[in-house]
């Protein structure tokens, strides 16, 4: 697989990464998760040239970092590990934001231990904490770089002013935010800002939480533990409207003899060499399908058709609930 650079600070990763969250939470049921298959998926990703693996302390919580650490034993020097801090974890779940400098250090020490490594390649602030100035956050992260515990810095779901202020303290290599054919909130201003500053973009949920693969059900058909059960875009009339909008993806996939998911990922890859999507999966067969997207060509005309078919006004429903949107720094 080809590689790409995230930002101007020299972090080189595979053109597609692997989001590991779903191996531990959010999608499907506990019974559907299989650690042996998850580890086999991580190993297969490395075989296919994927070098970029994304996790966070809050995934599980904690168990996803532990899983990735076990999977990468003997393979650590072949990969780039990204993880995140920024939440207070109590009683097995998130209990608010916490980016106080002392907590950042505590979180990083925990991540290093669970990942069984001596350094984190890319450390993100998971969500912007309005109670802690971003300058204090980044200064603490920069200290960890100087100490050799962290190599590069990132932010997740940060807004324009936060990005500017953070980057003025220490170079930010990547912004991780939701971006896909059906979630284009970054296009009006954020993407331009990142390119002006020389910061890479790591889109999470690049397949619209599975919607763009075509293999979707209505919200109420998913189990209680599945994120999609409460996703506004999977509910009621929104679901019907979004199925209609996504028909263009399915149609183009049929024409080209590929899958809808591969079209959605190829669209992102064609948006610029500074974009590295991290589709998540816990099974080898879906991983192999996702990796195949790197070889799917799209013409300028096909890109324009997709842009128009899933323009923001044609996608129904908010991307998150009101409570979750309150954690997005815009």
Task: Outline the structure in words.
Helix content is 37%, strand content 15%. By secondary structure, the chain is α/β, with parallel strands linked by helices. The chain has one domain: TIM Barrel, CATH 3.20.20.100. A seven-stranded parallel beta sheet has the order 3-4-5-8-9-10-11, with helices on one face. Strand 9, helix 5 and strand 10 form a beta-alpha-beta unit. Helix 4 packs parallel to helix 5 and helix 8 runs antiparallel to helix 11. The mean pLDDT is 96.
Summed up:
This protein has one domain: NADP-dependent oxidoreductase domain (TIM Barrel, Alpha-Beta Barrel). Helices cover 37% and strands 15% of the residues.
- How many domains, in number, for the residues? 1
Instruction: Give the number of helices.
Output: 12
Secondary structural class? alpha/beta
Q: Order of helices and strands, N to C?
A: EEEHEHEEEHEHEHEHEHHHHHH
Give the uncertain stretches in residue-range form: none
Strand order of the largest sheet: 3-4-5-8-9-10-11
